[in-house]
Amino acid sequence: MIMTLVAVWMMITSMNAQRLTNIQAEARFITDKMVVELGLSSAQRNSILNINLNYLNGIRSYRDIDAYGWHYRNKQLKRMMTARQWKRFKNSYYFYRPIGWQNHVYVHHIYTKYPKHNWGHDKRRPRPECSYGRPGWPGGTHVTYGPGKPCKHHKHDKKWKHDKKKWKHDRDWDDDDDDDDDD
């Protein structure tokens, strides 16, 4: 019994450490791209890194993407940036809304602009720019098809290929949708 509890505790600790590492990498990547594109100072960079880290760490479900944490993040960023930086920030969708929810998966919009960041060991094929799980958790398999085309699912992913069911939280959900011409 004690060994089981210790094993469960170690797995939970390991998962939380992995999630925090992934979130830190995401926040660092977004912040570094913001520094380059918006011309931020090093003092701004450190503060914005903490703000991005807190925002990404606060996302527990798709409902949290545009919730209080996102509004608080943008309020803090507006306070720290000059008017010119803020205008460029808002016009850059991948900075303003770094995480989205499309087709039941999280989409990291920064990878639309910078798709090569998330490549794995095989440089011929990019790794995913979105994940099935919460942001920062290791996710499923997706294939990136280049800039401007976020989050296409792999052709052998049967869950998404054959799942025609509409989910209750989809905005385009319709009770009368009996036709199969959605393709």
UniProtKB/TrEMBL annotation:
UniProt feature, compositional bias: Acidic residues: 173-183
Region span, Disordered: 138-183
Extent of Basic residues compositional bias: 150-168
Domain of life: Bacteria
UniProt protein name: Uncharacterized protein
